[in-house]
Amino acid sequence: MTNILEIQNLRTEFVTKNGKFFAVNNIDLYIKSNQIIGIVGESGCGKSVTALSIMNLIDLPGRINSGNIYFKKNDKVIDITELGKMSKKMRSIRGKEISMIFQDPMSSLNPVLTIGDQVIETIRLHKKITKRNAYLETIDLLNNVGLPSPKKTIKNYPHQLSGGMRQRIMIAIALSCNPSVLIADEPTTALDVTIQAQVLNLILEMKEKYQTAIMLITHDMGIIANFVQIVYVMYHGKVVECTTVENIFNNPKHPYTIGLLESIPTLEYDKNQPLKQINGSVPTSFEKINGCSFYKRCNYAKDICKNNSPSLLNINPYHQVSCWLHS
């Protein structure tokens, strides 16, 4: 399988009155057709900014500073970083070839338009079909995502639906044009456990049906264990570890990855003992760091970590880690 999406040395910056900072700092990322990759990390690690960079939706005062985002389709390679955000070419890719499910469906859906109007508009934007045919496709889509009474649902406004139903609508919109790449940014946030499982299984079904490559952004390691194949662990705008899901759980190398896994309760967990945690918090965006950004929180920190930033190195063909312990 060839890579359908490649990110090389991507840097996305934000310029504010307090200075400039890189929300995404020199990351590489690859995804193949019909593959699910996961991006994990705490809030503020750059996961969502990475997704928005791929969609070319970074608003001022942010911008892509350097790097390349290559999208491959039918033997053609397009560098998204060279396209204007609102250019005709970019608009033909966004939504049709690369779609995104955003964190909060309530803020993503237009509150003054019915569900039907929003789905139909998306379909007609990318397909040259009549409104009647777009309506019929919308009914089929809502059926496919498991929404009851589609003909009734399309007449509803977003506030009239539950959180799980709104998230299904977002999935329907994202899949309306059978995209080659689907980015799901915390698709189960604020949903109860039962609805979470339904939404994730629905995404998996759509992947199998349309052979879609999926980038799943989450902080839930349980979701990672059950759904993805390759895992990217991000911290402070950088990828600190990348490997198969089996290696992440059975042979984690970076202290941050180890800390994330140790903070998850297990069946063997002694409820009388305090749950392990990673002390401290992610450095602020404006904090100047010369060495490893995880240095102050790391239980394995050495002198070299304070002033020297480690590179992402191959420790075997299927495992990369950015840590002086393995350099």
Q: How do the helices and strands line up, and which of them pair or pack?
A:
Elements: E1 3-16, E2 19-32, E3 36-40, H1 47-54, E4 62-73, E5 76-79, H2 88-93, E6 98-101, H3 105-108, H4 115-126, H5 131-144, H6 150-153, H7 163-174, E7 181-185, H8 193-210, E8 213-217, H9 221-227, E9 230-235, E10 238-244, H10 245-250, H11 255-262, H12 303-307, E11 313-316, E12 319-321
Parallel strand pairs: 3-8, 3-9, 6-7, 7-8
Antiparallel strand pairs: 1-2, 1-4, 4-5, 9-10, 10-12, 11-12
Helix pairs in contact: 4-5, 5-7, 7-8
Briefly say what this structure is.
The chain has 327 residues and is of the alpha/beta class. It has 12 helices and 12 strands. The strands form 2 sheets. An 8-stranded mixed beta sheet has the order 6-7-8-3-9-10-12-11, sandwiched between helices. It has a 4-stranded antiparallel beta sheet with strand order 2-1-4-5, covered by helices on one side.
